[in-house]
Amino acid sequence: MVDSEIVSKYGRLIENVLLSNGFREVIINGVTNFVHEETYRKVTYVHSLGFVIEYAQSLKDAVMNLYEDGDSYPLSLGECLQTQLQADIEKFMV
């Protein structure tokens, strides 16, 4: 069983990386989303996978909860999770 403090720690780390890369935080249907241009992302913890960043291509899709599965970041990455996420963001923003 995964410690909730560890999940919270890495959840905050992901949020901080997104915010430090220019994403803005908005609440849609009570769920935190991170927006860059017109793409909405939400971070979800899935026990068997780790963290999954899901994508909606528009505000309308986000409001209708039409997210696509995106990148996953298992807790087994440990401190490398931040490095991997940063690299993925840099590839996306080019």
Concise account of the structure shown:
With 94 residues, the chain is an alpha+beta fold.
Mind explaining what this structure looks like?
Strands 1-2-3-4-5 form a five-stranded antiparallel sheet. The mean pLDDT is 92. It is globular. The protein has one domain (4-93). The protein has three helices and five strands; from the N terminus they run αββββαβα. The longest helix is centred in the N-terminal third of the chain and has 17 residues, at 4-20. By secondary structure, the protein is an alpha+beta fold. A hairpin with a 2-residue loop joins strand 2 (31-36) and strand 3. Helices cover 38% and strands 30% of the residues.
Main traits of this protein?
94 residues; alpha+beta; five-stranded antiparallel sheet; 3 helices; 30% strand
What layout of secondary structure does this protein have?
Elements lengths: L3 H17 L3 E5 L2 E6 L2 E8 L3 E7 L2 H5 L8 E2 L6 H14 L1
Antiparallel strand pairs: 1-2, 2-3, 3-4, 4-5
